[in-house]
Amino acid sequence: MTTAVVKQHTDLLRQMLRIRKFEEACAELYSAAEIRGFLHLYVGEEAIAAGVLSDLTAADAVVTTYREHGHALARGIPMEAVLAEMFGRTSGCSRGRGGSMHLFDAKRRFYGGNAIVGGGLPLAVGIALADRMRADLHVTACFFGDGAVAEGEFHECMNLAALWKLPVLFCCENNLYAMGTALARAQAQTDLALRASSYGMPAWAVDGMDVLAVEEATRRAVETIRGGGGPGFLELRTYRFRAHSMYDSDRYRDKAEIARWKERDPIEAMVRRMQLTDDALKALHREVDDEIQRAVAAAAEGPLEPVEDLTRFVYAEKS
Fold it and tell me: How far apart (Å, rounded) are the C-alpha atoms in residues 284 and 290?
């Protein structure tokens, strides 16, 4: 492999490790009551955020779901800002007011997690329409789960994006379960890429456990979209290793099924593909562990919202 390819692979592996270890740290902090409210973890799906976000520019936009920690980190939002948000500190990316499900960073064109299933789809279409009206050659990547395919706004947005040839990359993270409902119990057509293609847009099914496959498919789709080809759709077939949320008892999945998917762990697969030495892998782990330790310490030191400011931002402030 060339030096450039080795660097790319290392960067992708590092990003997946950052997301995995961050999520594991969040689970521990949640159990210690440092993080409150809902918490939806991305463990197992890291290849998608790392692969897709690596092909976007800083000028492109990102809209995502309530399972968005991985997207936020891969987008470049500092880890301490993400964690401070979960701690409810004003140093968080949403000033501690959004928590785990509502990460937001306008400067990085990261237009948030969204607690409503499918709620980000209309936002993404609107952002893409605005970019096109300004003649900005930007792409809006919109992440959503397979459960969103059952929502009316999914079909409305797919239709409008195709009709108006909007620069949207629809990224369906198909982890086979909408909360506790298996895909086959909710959808008569489980080939979601095929369903998307019925709207007249290019659509691909991608192995969401293979970060290189995700990156390649994203690069191909983004090139087409940026060239004026209209929207594209990626069905990223993946699996979450943990339950839907920290409140979920996860009794709707067979343990053998979970074990089979864990054999396809995207991080372990990338390590095998790169043939890393033990020393190189340990160095990467230390690097990420140190970043997490610094983020936890910084987040814990962040200030809490003063009581007198609790009604602030109910209305827009005058500039």
Answer: 10
